[in-house]
Amino acid sequence: MDKLKMSLGAIYMALKNPQTPIWLKFATILTVIYILSPIDLIPDYPILGYIDDVTLLSFMIFLLKNGIPKDVMQRSQEEILRRKHKLIQDAEQTANEVIINYSKSDDSSHSSSSRR
Q: Which residues fall within 8 angstroms of residue 109, CB to CB, at 6 or more apart?
């Protein structure tokens, strides 16, 4: 699931890049609208009704894979990884600060109570 989130983030970043063809951006927007729309070419009956959605998504994945310039996708993936590592570092730093502050406040409450 983590890989899927990272891939979707990289695709989103790549689609925002000016080097990505405008037709691909437009096709992606139309695909998302169609998938989320309650109006379908084939009504959503069990199994059979999802054929149009699956076909369209498969075609869109193919277009994204081949339409986004390789260097743009590479940079987007690297940026997503950089952001993930930064988020983890920030979370670790915040956790350490909270633990240190908690320890200091716990030590001071013990020392003040022992003076009484």
A: none
